[in-house]
Amino acid sequence: MTQSNIPIFSNLYEELEPTQLPDSLHCERLEQRSGFHDWKIKPHRHDQLVQLFVVLEGGGEAIIDGEAIKFVAPFVAYVPSLTVHSFHYIEDSSGFVLSVFKDEVHSSLQSVPNLVSLFNQSFSISENDNTRQIAKILDLMTRFHDEYRSNRACRLLALRSLLALILVNLSRCVPQLNEQPSETDFDNQQKVATLMEVIEANYTEHHSTEFYANAMNITLTKLRRMTQSILGISAHQLINNKIILEAKRNILYTSMTASQIADMLGFKDPAYFSRFFKKHTGESPSEYRKRASISENL
């Protein structure tokens, strides 16, 4: 049993053949694909796409990286690439699903690097969080879908402009992002985004924080101050968080044993992996899987 138990799509859900997304963008009605799959989207992830789920009518339950979220419309969920997610919608729910290559999102954020860390993580917004802002997002998504289906002049420019507006309005639902960061913060936020990519490529090797500082061509002190300033955690904790996240994903979405997961994550001793997992979660891998299974069946 391998990590292939969690399907990874390079394109859209359940589409195995390469999908040509027009200019890195794709927008469809939520009910189009979900209705076809009996309103159940099974756990999966995308290696290149980020997705925005906008529910206009209905509701359901989402599980995003192990977190269960019950929702009613209006509701918005942002899911970055490689994030495991599933949805079980109420029948006849409606809305939109926007799928964008991650490079397109990064390009839209080039002039606002303080948003990069936000859009590297999943989040959701309900009407209770910000009624006015979510109404703007719903309107922008309706306009995006209309433009996407059209053959108007300057269509691509319009779509990219609407994408930028959607990202801006999503960010405005996060109060701390309304503050203007300093030039130093801008630089640190860009470096943190790069650091997270380096961790993504190397976390199973269990390198020291010094390795990551060298990879970033900065001092170890700079690395520590940077992650503490931007993320509020140490670089060491950031690396451990990534390992725990991948462990949780495989415990929840595969039938792999703790020993197999330990091996996949680069642990030579399965017992040490179990202790490591319990130290960071308060539960052993088996306890975590059992609790998740009980919760799923409630």
TrEMBL record:
Keywords (A to Z) from UniProt: DNA-binding, Transcription, Transcription regulation
Name of the molecule in the record: AraC family transcriptional regulator
Native organism: Arenicella xantha
Cited Pfam families: Cupin_2, HTH_18
Gene3D superfamilies found in the cross-reference section: Homeodomain-like (1.10.10.60), Jelly Rolls (2.60.120.10)
Record-annotated HTH araC/xylS-type domain positions: 193-291
A molecular-function term among this protein's GO annotations: DNA-binding transcription factor activity
